[in-house]
Amino acid sequence: MESPSHVKSGYWVCMPHCLPVAEIHSRLFTHLYAGFAVVHRDGGVTFPSTYKDQFQSFTRTVRKRSPQVKTLLSIGGDDHQGSHNISVVVKDADKRAKLIKDSIDLARKFDFDGLDLCWQYPSPSDNGADLGSFLDEWRDAVKEDAETRSKPELLLTAAVFHHPVIPGTGGRFFYYPCEAISDNLDWINVLAIDFYTPTNSSGETGPVQAWLNPKERNRCGSAGIGNWISNGVATKQLVLGLPFHGYEWILKNQCHSGFFAPAHPAKTISKPYRTILEIIQNPKNNYKTTYDCDYVATYSHNNKGSWIGYDNVCSISKKVKEASGKDNLGGYSAWHVGADDDKWSLSTAAYNAWQSAYNCKANP
């Protein structure tokens, strides 16, 4: 599919105490995702009942600040049940057909410009061919819908793992259907996130959202993007996922406080950037912040042993400049906008970095 230029997108995610949709600074984005619509085991798609009103009014609300912004309804999300239900649905042609029909009907009824499949993540027990069939059928249905309604085709995108091959246990893997992705999706949001977390690195810290990784070269965003390209997905169909969250460890020895320092998890759940900023900017907490250009990653630690890895304005800006300039990707996508601070620092940094890199290419 032909990819639009300069995708500057972000996910709004419904959750307790989530950012009100009316407070999204939509002028900073070309596309905004409403996440996540619920997938049922029979293939049905509905809005979460608690947040139904926000979904129904999402497009109308974000366009009050920016009438040009495009909106997409994201389906699935990062919860285990949603992932399991998508797995069940894509295996069955009748259930796929229901998901396709329900998703298109919801998008049209509430004026979304597109649809997004957020399957986090397929497992080795899933078949990439089934996902490929779903994408073929989804695109065909969107074309038919556009012809029937005499309207532009809905955009189709997906949020995907940072690598086109997802490893599992026992030497088993899930292989994304890269040809079907290239043929049917306008772009994919590559979730280049969570390379080191308290769950997968419980004994030491790490460059949580590394763009580069001199120590483990395949465990970073740039390597993931490179693997998608080498598997045949065009650079303009690749949109870099930007993480607006981080994780905390407790150092075992404060004399060792950099990446790969001995540590144990503080908590396994992520911290939104806004919370991290509140913690490290409080003078009583006495945090020191380090940006490491070798990894394009940031961490903060204090004299009580707390160590937090995350992306700040420096690392977000560098990643976006690399994506726009050297890698010539199709854009970036914030994961997720409600985690930004009150000044929208990360979203603004990404926007400005993309514009700067683009201007440099246009005026060498």
What report would you give on this structure?
- By secondary structure, this protein is an alpha/beta fold.
- The protein folds into two domains: 7-196 and 210-243 and 312-362, Alpha-Beta Barrel (TIM Barrel); 249-308, Chitinase A, domain 3 (Roll), CATH 3.10.50.
- Helices cover 32% and strands 25% of the residues.
- It contains ten helices and 17 strands.
- It has helices at residues 52-56, 58-62, 80-90, 93-109, 128-149, 178-184, 221-230, 273-280, 313-324, 345-362; strands spanning 7-13, 31-39, 45-46, 70-77, 114-119, 155-161, 165-167, 173-175, 187-191, 238-243, 245-251, 263-265, 271-272, 287-292, 297-302, 306-310, 331-335.
- The strands form three sheets. It has an eight-stranded parallel beta barrel with strand order 1-2-4-5-6-9-10-17, surrounded by six helices. Strands 11, 12, 13, 14, 15 and 16 form a six-stranded antiparallel β-sheet that branches. Strands 7-8 form a two-stranded antiparallel ribbon.
- It is globular, with a radius of gyration of 20 Å.
Task: Considering the chains and any ligands shown, give keywords for the structure.
six-stranded antiparallel sheet, 2 domains, TIM Barrel, GH, Chitinase_II/V-like_cat, alpha/beta, GH18 domain-containing protein, 364 residues, eight-stranded parallel barrel, 10 helices, chitin binding, 32% helix, Chitinase A, domain 3
